């Protein structure tokens, strides 16, 4: 059972997508797994033949539990059986503190805020992940660890979000870009690739425009700042929402497949909304990049002058910021519009997005 994000403790096997005897290559879909927050497809980690399905649909298993066995065709059945027996006899589920990340979350002071963050990997390449409006660092649950295979990858909660400070003094994109730079200073990063989603995309782009020497590459996922259209009803509804049914409907607008939104994600969002200062912080931040139901920050003109590599990734079913804003971008921008996915494309098209990001 994979561990997707620091908070994941267990997963439910929904459906096998490959049959025993199937020849798999790295990245092929193997099974659908549902976590407390969102569902995802588990992909083959190595090439080989699916020799055994160990876990069955509806099994709820802790992280690290054996799901199945992929091995070369020449390995005999007795060796497969012996491996399964030995694994099951010796497997010990992680203790609760280990499952919750074992201290993976840290806090640091930057730009006058207390920011929660996590770091994975130790590569010389530095990547900073910037989430969007109403989200937190958990939005990168399927992104941070794969990228950390060959990089040092940092994800943090923006002011007003997650477990960072809730008193937001300036919610403008320009001010939040300075928070990114201050965070980099605080953790000792001289230069990094920035990956930003939604509002985080606008923040990352503004950071690159204002501080090009600090940004070595830019990946903007369904970013704000490239056009005026935005789902203003979603933003207003999210700020005001205080009940489960409405919250579930709002969160389902973020994905093409509404079944991906789990009960725990809805509960977590409601709990976050009820923290003192959160509605006010969200309203301040929303006013910093929207007005009268439209985007009020236009950063499109800054793209052409950037000297670092720039990628734009969008799901064509995005119901928050239309993917049409990816059209006619400057020639220095590599554009990827992925069919069949919504606003949280990094959670829906995990393999495709991670490949574009260089995982």
Distance N to C terminus = 20 Å
Based on secondary structure, the structural category is: alpha/beta
Number of helices: 11
Radius of gyration: 21 Å
Q: What is the strand arrangement across the widest sheet? A: 8-9-11-10-12-13-16-17
Number of domains: 2
**Roughly what fraction of the amino acids lie in strands?**
15-25%
Largest sheet: 8 strands, mixed
General shape = globular
CATH H-level superfamily of the largest domain: Alpha/Beta hydrolase fold, catalytic domain
Unreliable sequence segments: 97-103
Let me know the average pLDDT: 92
State the name of the first-level CATH class of the largest domain. Alpha Beta
Helical content stands at 25-40%
E-strand count: 17
Looking at the overall shape, the CATH architecture of the largest domain is 3-Layer(aba) Sandwich
Strand-and-helix sequence, N→C? EEEEEEEHHEEEHEHEHEHHHHEEEEHH
CATH fold naming of the largest domain: Rossmann fold
């Amino acid at each position: 059972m994979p561990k997707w994000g620091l908070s994941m403790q267990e997963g439910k096997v929904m459906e096998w997508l490959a049959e025993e005897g199937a020849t798999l290559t790295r990245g092929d879909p193997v099974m659908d797994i549902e976590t407390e927050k969102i569902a995802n497809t588990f992909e083959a980690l190595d090439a080989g033949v699916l020799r055994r399905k160990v876990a069955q649909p509806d099994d709820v298993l802790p992280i690290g539990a054996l799901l199945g066995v992929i091995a070369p065709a020449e390995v005999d059945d007795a060796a497969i059986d012996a491996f399964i027996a030995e694994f099951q006899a010796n497997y010990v589920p992680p203790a609760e503190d280990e499952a919750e990340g074992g201290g993976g979350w840290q806090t640091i002071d930057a730009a006058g805020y207390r920011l929660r963050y996590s770091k994975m990997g130790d590569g010389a390449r530095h990547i900073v992940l910037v989430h969007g409006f109403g989200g937190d660092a958990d939005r990168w649950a399927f992104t941070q660890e794969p990228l950390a295979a060959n990089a040092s990858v940092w994800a943090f909660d923006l002011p007003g979000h997650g477990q960072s400070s809730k008193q937001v003094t300036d919610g403008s994109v320009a001010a939040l870009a300075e928070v990114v730079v201050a965070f980099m200073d605080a953790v000792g990063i001289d230069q990094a690739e920035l990956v930003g989603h939604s509002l985080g995309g606008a923040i990352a782009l503004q950071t690159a425009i204002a501080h090009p020497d600090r940004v070595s590459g830019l990946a903007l996922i369904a970013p704000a700042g490239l056009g005026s259209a935005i789902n203003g009803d979603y933003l207003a509804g999210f700020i005001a929402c205080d009940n489960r049914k409405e919250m579930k409907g709002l969160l389902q607008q973020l994905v093409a497949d509404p079944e991906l939104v789990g009960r725990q994600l809805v509960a977590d969002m409601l709990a976050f909304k009820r923290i003192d200062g959160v509605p006010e912080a969200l309203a301040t931040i929303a006013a910093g990049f929207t007005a009268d139901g439209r985007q009020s920050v236009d950063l499109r003109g800054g793209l052409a002058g950037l000297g670092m590599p720039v990628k734009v990734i969008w799901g064509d079913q995005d119901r928050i910021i239309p993917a049409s804003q990816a059209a006619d971008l400057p020639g220095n921008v590599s554009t990827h519009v992925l069919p069949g996915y919504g606003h949280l494309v990094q959670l829906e098209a995990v393999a495709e997005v991670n490949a574009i990001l260089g995982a």
